Amino acid sequence: MIDRRSLFSASAAAFLVLAAAQTVHAQTPIETIASNTIIADLVTQVGGERINVETLVGAGVDAHVFQPAPADARRVAAARLVFVNGLGLEGWLPRLVQATGGKAQIVTLSKGVKPIREKGNAHNHSHGHGHGHGEGLDPHAWQDVANTKIYVANIRDALIGADPQGRDIYQARANAYIAELDILDADIRKTISAIPEASRRIITTHDAFGYFTRAYALRFIAPQGVSTEAEISSRDVARIIRQIKAEKITAIFIESAADERIMNQIAKETGARIGGRIYADALTAKDGPAPTYVAMMRHNLRAFAEALQR
User: Fold this and answer.
1) Fewer Cβ within 10 Å of end Cβ, the chain: N or C?
2) What is the model's pLDDT at position 193?
3) Residue ranges of domains in the chain
4) Which residues of the chain have pLDDT under 50?
């Protein structure tokens, strides 16, 4: 004879085991890939503990010259979502996705951004490697905080689509982060407005700050195009030197992944001051000065203000 109490206890135990298994499954982090460290940080800000993020182009690495390895194809194949910038930054992406059998869900974060075209209708600096910026678009849209908020909204929507159970969490985290970005945007505007308009001119290693200029009226001049794959010619250097002297530009900034020699040469020949190292395309390691997007923007802002307000 079957003991009803034993049967009930066994059923209850089975139910608890099943419920526990479902809970564990629901909390298993979603595997995601971010094309670079800036995007990885934004995805982490929205996804929190419900996701696991791996980065293709690591800290301090120049995204413009990155070439994926076979191991990267395996990582992409194992991911549920792949977050990329778009605007031609990841020229290597189609080949990488093809190597995975085309199964990866690609989320382009710049969708909805009003792009800037490279000056002079832009050359595509691909050099045959597929890294060029398609149709001459400037890919550095995150330099305008308003664009970063678009990135965050696209991340939120993609995560909700992949994990509807986490909708409230993703929505809340996105809202909180957008509020932080609003504060950042206001601080940038306030700081730049305090710099005399005639002094709002900076020399940088490559032209990565077009969106910053459009949003915040701080002018950047660079001997290199929007891609660091473009070779700097002696004519470019001579033009920059003439411009610095003519406009009395006082500050030169070297980007983290750049060759310092050209900028040091320009500084030596013009007397312009090296204003410090800034970060445009990649974050630093956690113990560095720019381990997150917000930290990167604030680090750069402090460097600009300190150099231009002297």
Assistant:
1) N
2) 95
3) 25-181, 183-308
4) 1-2, 4, 6-8, 10-26, 120-134, 225-229
**What CA–CA distances, in Å, run from 240 to 172, 199, 222, 236, 274?**
47, 17, 7, 6, 15
Q: Is the CATH number 3.40.50.1980 carried by domain 25-181?
A: yes
Considering the domain delimited by 183-308, tell me its CATH architecture.
Answer: 3-Layer(aba) Sandwich (3.40)
Contacts of 22 (CB under 8 A, 6+ apart): none
Question: Cα–Cα distance between 44 and 198 in angstroms, integer?
Answer: 39
What pLDDT, on the 0 to 100 scale, is given for residue 10?
45
| Contact present, 171 and 156 (Cβ < 8 Å) | yes
Instruction: For residue 53, give the nearest of 85, 71, 29, 77 by alpha carbon.
Output: 29
Given this model, what pLDDT does residue 256 score?
53
> Can you give the pLDDT at residue 180?
98
pLDDT at residue 96, as a whole number: 86
